[in-house]
Amino acid sequence: MNKSLLITREGWDALDKELKYLWKEERPRVTQSVSEAAAQGDRSENAEYIYGKKRLREIDRRIRFLSKRLDQLRIVEPDPRQEGRVFFGAWVKLEDDNGNIRIFRLVGADEFDPAKQWISIDSPVARALIGKRVDDEVVVSTPGGQVTYFVLEISYKPLFN
């Protein structure tokens, strides 16, 4: 499955900030340290030089990826007409059959973060939630079996337990 090309404004800004940091700060700093290490003579046994060149390749790879990806992504801003229904960018409070409460935010594949409970719009839970309203029941197939959730709250601003 291809990753979706949708992203929130915050997600796009974070990737753009990373790209600018790598290009304007990190890469020049590493380039300078490689130059200094190269000036020390024999490069074949110079750990600083070898590590610096490796780090430059990693930075350049990430810069190329971010540059291409940012051109492809489409920023999705919340629309007032979405209120009351689950769409991209929504925070959703759910309750499972056991009374456990979970809050998820539906975000783009490039910005999902399990620690924040941000799930990719491409995930089974997010796909099952799209278009749902408060009090709707959602059944999600997981590797451990089916899980049923009830939609308690939907917001386009952060929700907290």
TrEMBL record:
Functional summary from the UniProt entry: Necessary for efficient RNA polymerase transcription elongation past template-encoded arresting sites. The arresting sites in DNA have the property of trapping a certain fraction of elongating RNA polymerases that pass through, resulting in locked ternary complexes. Cleavage of the nascent transcript by cleavage factors such as GreA or GreB allows the resumption of elongation from the new 3'terminus. GreB releases sequences of up to 9 nucleotides in length.
Family in the record: Belongs to the GreA/GreB family. GreB subfamily.
Taxonomic classification: Bacteria, Pseudomonadati, Pseudomonadota, Gammaproteobacteria, Enterobacterales
Coiled coil: none
InterPro entries, alphabetized: GreA/GreB_C_sf, TF_GreA/GreB_CS, Tscrpt_elong_fac_GreA/B, Tscrpt_elong_fac_GreA/B_C, Tscrpt_elong_fac_GreA/B_fam, Tscrpt_elong_fac_GreA/B_N, Tscrpt_elong_fac_GreA/B_N_sf, Tscrpt_elong_fac_GreB
Highest taxon above the source species: Bacteria
Cross-referenced Pfam families: GreA_GreB, GreA_GreB_N
Domain Transcription elongation factor GreA/GreB C-terminal: 82-156
The protein, known as: Transcription elongation factor GreB
Keywords: DNA-binding, Elongation factor, Protein biosynthesis, Transcription, Transcription regulation
Keyword presence, DNA-binding: yes
Alphabetized NCBIfam families for the sequence: greB, PRK01885.1
